[in-house]
Amino acid sequence: MSYLGLFRSWPGNAILASIALCPAVSFADHPEEVDEERSELSTAVPAQIVEYPATFFQRYQPNTALDMVRQVPGFQLDDGDNSRGFTTAAGNILINNQRPSVKQDRPSDILGRIPASNVVRIDLIRGQTSGVDLQGQQVVANILLREDSPAAVRWEAFVYKNTENSVIMPGGGISLSDRWADVEYNTGISGNRHAHSSLGSRNSYDAEGDLSEDRSNDVLNTHLTVSANLNASTWIGETLLQLNTELGYDKVDETLIADRIPQNGIDPPRHEDIVDDRESDNYEIGVSAERDLSEDLTGKGIFILIQERANEVSTQRILDDEKTQILFRLSDTDTDTTEAIARLELDWTGFDNHQIQLNMEGAFNSLDGSLLQTVDTGAGPE
């Protein structure tokens, strides 16, 4: 029996708009270094912004901005989610007052590529402030970086060994933070391979509680993942441009070997091999532009494009007690997914001590897939 299926899904376009009225506080365009060793409240609006200078984190000996964020009192890092659109997927991190215009590249991964030596301070923001769209978050951490940081390279490497199957599991990554002309950028590549195996048994019982089948399982799973990233920003006139990109590759190989021994004295023992190979690649491009449209009005546009291609090949082979094949099943699945997001943010601060925020977002999603299945019960493929 053969089956070929094609499926396509367009959930359609989604447009969201929101207006918020909230107290206004302004940030400086570029942070200055703070030398105090303790956290202090901002003099602008007490209890809304708590400043933690870089010296506050020295006791923890941080290597990256991520290490510092994890030590901010009263703050829990949120990497966002994979829901449709950008609003709930952005997390609760700002970098130099800006939310990264990226969805797949998690905030924790971005912070992990920023050396701790590049951080001036971290502001803990509670409640709405001017120029900051909390997007439903109660607390946001704003990481303020040095403007004149020298080039910094961060790298790590590790090797693990699985003592059960002697599989070597290497991994590592390297990232570079620097400035080229008027462009500040951070780029890096990382990857790792890990494997695990398990041995076990699963017994089946009938309605009377008697053993009906004795089954032993041997599972081996290997996983390889590689990713590369580039984040850059620059000023063109009075417009701040940001670029965020990510490339990823993922491969999973899983093998299950099972011996099934029926206890009814009628059905013969069977040997079963299941091999599942999954491979995927993805890329994401995020671009944003922000500028002051007037003295009281700031506008920001964001565009994000995400695409992922995945292939999964699964085979099942069953042999009888004489090692004769009695069943072969092959499933081959291909899936292509695309998401495009366009977002417009407007902030108006014409009222004293308040601001009006207008956010509009549209999202388009598509899914294309195919499934090919072949079954051979001994007389040839069907």
Structure characterization notes:
- The chain has one domain.
- The longest helix is centred in the N-terminal third of the chain and has 6 residues.
- Strands 1-15-14-13-12-11-10-9-8-7 form a ten-stranded antiparallel sheet, with no helix packed on it. The chain has a five-stranded mixed sheet with strand order 2-3-5-6-4.
- The protein contains two helices and 15 strands.
- With 382 residues, the chain is mainly beta.
- It is elongated and about 85 Å long.
Which terms summarize this structure?
382 residues; mainly beta; ten-stranded antiparallel sheet; five-stranded mixed sheet; 2 helices; disordered N terminus
Radius of gyration, in Å, reads: 27 Å
Please give the number of β-strands: 15
Regarding quaternary structure, how should these chains be classified?
single chain
Largest sheet: 10 strands, antiparallel
Percentage of residues in DSSP E strands = over 45%
Tell me, rounded to a whole number, the average pLDDT: 79
Note the overall shape. elongated
Count of individual domains: 1
**Structural category:** mainly beta
Instruction: Pick out the low-confidence regions.
Output: 1-47
Q: End-to-end span in angstroms?
A: 4 Å
In N-to-C order, the SSE pattern is EEEHEHEEEEEEEEEEE
Number of helices: 2
Strands in their spatial order, largest beta sheet: 1-15-14-13-12-11-10-9-8-7
Range of helix content: under 10%
